[in-house]
Amino acid sequence: MATEVQKRAVGAGTDWWRGAVIYQIYPRSFQDTTGDGLGDIKGITRRLAHVASLGVDAIWLSPFFTSPMADMGYDVSDYCNVDPMFGTLADFDEMMVEAHRLGIKVIIDQVISHTSDRHPWFVESRTSRTNPKADWFVWADPKPDGTAPTNWLSIFGGPGWEWDGVRKQYYMHNFLISQPDLNFHNPEVQDALLDTVKFWLDRGVDGFRLDTVNYYFHDKQLRNNPPMVYDTDGAGMETDTNPYSMQNHLYDKTQPENIDFLKRLRALLDTYDDRMTVGEVGDGPRSLKTLAEYTSGSDKLHMCYTFDFLGPAFDAGYIRKIMTTVADTVSEGWVCWAFSNHDVIRHVTRFIEAPEEQDRVAKLSISLISVLRGSICLYQGEELGLTEAELAFEDLRDPYGIRFWPAFKGRDGCRTPMVWEAKAPHAGFTEGSTTWLPVPNEHAARAVDVQERLATSVLAHYRETLSFRKVHPALVDGDMTFIETNQNVLAFTREKGGERLLFVFNLTRERQKFTLPARFDSVTPVDMPGFVSKLEGGAAVLEGIDVFCARV
């Protein structure tokens, strides 16, 4: 079976991931085929034609492994099986075959920094201090007064340690109490995790999205984190609603030993044809530096993404700052960009200033990210211009949101079911009577079947824009050079193989005129999908939320 699946893999022998467009699928919200109100793998297979129609290169599947679902599958209890709520391994194999038939690579989410507390490894580890897996998790004695070994905090609230009455020790957890951290300092743990990666490689998967890739190791000396000191620029300390951001996380993550493990992981992947890794780096102000370290050379990760474009900033100065910092810092590595994913407020909601801007901002967003240097991740539903769903507290399923409500509403607002048919019950997501999260009426009105009929829809724009990207090699992996300007516009060129394209983005709501540099003595305007490039007397004329493109 695995051999046949591997034979179907497309693009063998190429760096297909460099400049790739990856579509993230959140399985429990994509398509239900059983009527239980939860998406499943057969549903993914059923809807792959839609994904292929966008012109993407790969899909990334959020976790579908066996799990008690305390954190919606990011608490794994069996790395080598499919949770029954999603289907079976046979369903997965069928999905792989169909994806590869359509020319789509398959990337799966590897959550190996921690397990579920119901994973057999942890069940055994907590029974005593002398069992074979006693040192597979991060255990430590209390301080003399009974308090936790360090001041480390959990991202999901409270201390990063939990007391276990059987071992009479604390165990570390960066996330939920039910998500104990694995001890990567133990070579047996590394070996066991690499075996689980090999399981999926043998099954034919094309790549791995590595959840919290800089969280694998902790400081063996168990030193306390110091307070975070922000360069506030007058804005004050940005603690949001979570005290986790008040610490400078020097010791509970991003340890130097991680580099050697990433090399071991890469060495394993390199024994297979054409596989890749994309790491999630959450390291605050150090994220780009960490990304550079993890992607330098050809012996660690293929690429990483950070959270730099997953916040509220959507202006020319900020984007230029991030992109130039990347160019200066990540000289050898490769970056993957995203505006939305399963953990953040949908970007249309973050970026619009008024409801009537929804479609135009959605279109300009994909136009912009599609011409930046790097690979890109799209999140299901953004091709419909979906906004963040407003949910009542009683509808929440996300433990993070429940913990910090009402100051933080959690991540469920971006995880509501995909909308396929506007007039069907639950917008075609399920034939059952209920859904695991509500389907907002405003989302149903933007369903796929509605937008298929509109030549000017956001969906049509995504398809046309990604097609535009593919026919211009400079946009896939060409050089990028910014143009200095004192105007509130983003101007740069992309260049490769004799083709040089100029882009000027106006992210403001005001009309702008941008005088083209004198060195561009020959300029041919090029209309990007959905936008008209206007040139008047050597100046690009841009309306609010607009783009100018030209061949120079």
Provide tags for this entry:
552 residues, alpha/beta, 25% helix
Plain-language structure description:
Strands 11-10-9-5-2-1-13-12 form an eight-stranded parallel β-sheet, covered by helices on one side. A five-stranded antiparallel β-sheet has the order 14-15-16-21-18. A three-stranded antiparallel β-sheet has the order 6-8-7, with no helix packed on it. α6 packs parallel to α7 and α11 packs parallel to α15. The chain is 25% helix and 16% strand. It is globular and about 80 Å long. The longest helix has 16 residues. The N terminus is likely disordered.
**What percentage of the residues does DSSP assign to strands (E)?**
15-25%
Average pLDDT figure: 94
User: In angstroms, what separates the terminal alpha carbons?
Assistant: 51 Å
- The gyration radius over C-alpha positions equals 24 Å
- What helical percentage do the residues reach? 25-40%
Number of strands: 21
Number of distinct helices = 16
Shape category: globular
Task: Note the main sheet.
Answer: 8 strands, parallel
- Runs in which pLDDT lies below 50 for 5 or more consecutive residues are 1-13, 232-238
Quickly give the structural class: alpha/beta
Strand order of the largest sheet: 11-10-9-5-2-1-13-12
